[in-house]
Amino acid sequence: MPIKKYILPIIVFAQFCCTSLWFAGNAIIFDLIENFNLSLSSLSHLTSAVQFGFIIGTFLFAILAISDRFSASKVFFISAMIASGINLLTVLEVNSFQSLFAIRFGTGFFLAGIYPVGMKIASDFFKSGLGKSLGFLVGALVIGTAFPHALKVFGDLISWKSLVYITSIVAFLGGLVLVLFIPEGPYKVKSQKFDITLFYSIFKIKNFRSAAFGYFGHMWELYTFWAFVPFILSAYLEFHNTIHFNISLWSFIVIGIGALGCVLSGYLSQIFTVKKVALTSLSLSCLCCLVFPMLFVINSKTVFLGFLIFWGIVVIADSPLFSTLVAQNAPNHAKGTALTIVNSIGFGITILSIQIINNIQDSIEVRYLFLLLAVGPFLGVLQFAFNKLKV
What we know:
Elements: H1 7-19, H2 24-27, H3 29-36, H4 42-63, H5 66-69, H6 72-88, H7 97-111, H8 115-125, H9 130-153, H10 160-181, H11 198-201, H12 206-239, H13 247-256, H14 258-271, H15 274-296, H16 301-317, H17 319-328, H18 335-360, H19 366-369, H20 375-385
Helix pairs in contact: 1-8, 1-9, 1-10, 4-7, 4-18, 6-7, 6-8, 6-10, 8-9, 8-18, 9-13, 9-14, 9-17, 12-13, 12-15, 12-17, 12-18, 12-20, 13-16, 14-15, 14-16, 15-16, 15-17, 15-20, 17-18
């Protein structure tokens, strides 16, 4: 059965719209600090709140096999509707750190019905060339994640409350478009019953386990890098006080350029193997962590920003490929559950990474701080490189 050409663009558009909620709090963190009398450490705590909510959400979605038992498009829409509504609560004047933490947690919880479910929907439509399809889909996640930073560039024209309204409306629109135009995919195999054993039995599959561990190493680095991009740029300006650039604009560029990496890696996976392209990307992002101290002290805006752009590309380029390997090596009736489980564990790792960097940032020079991020990709490369997976 031929797949209609509009299917993938609509899934990509919906993913972009809904994942704009992810870093909505990060883009306005200084406004939140000022308006609600928060501490500077709120950046890491509120980022971790989203991740923690996502973990709990994906855990429950996985053990209940929600996206395999029910219409994935409807799950996506309901999750988008609730997440956008929770995000709107950010503008309430009675908010405190505790309520903002709960709001970001709730947003993250229902993002569990968006990001992995979107990948599951794509895998139900595209069996061959799945790496390319997920490349576009994860690219949409990247642009969606960076989108609030782009809005923040126009801070004089768009207030922080307007940014919250815009991201919520956009997310609701994305969910609505998807549920109206995307039916069940031809490759969907519906799971008829709840099976809690899936949560651990799929890790008995060697190729699945290898793909999952590679993804975990990648996640140790990814979201901590994204969360601290504004911090990295600000620290560089303080270290080189003769250099000037717009932090919000370059935060958007450094994060958003990863979409290009996702699309490019998807196409390259059709020329080379998915495994080779994923392994190359993971190795390059590990290298970026290691050379960061040397690049940080170079008094050249062009060199430093160029380096961050390259890092922004390779840090995410392997993500759709690991998701492809996870989907391809999971049982057909449990693809959605498998993707959700791996996402849940992966985002649990991001909380640990973010909090460790946050807790040691006052004790270690900024230029050496992100060497710790190399640990995840390095371990991922070690175990993934020696697996005999042929994809």
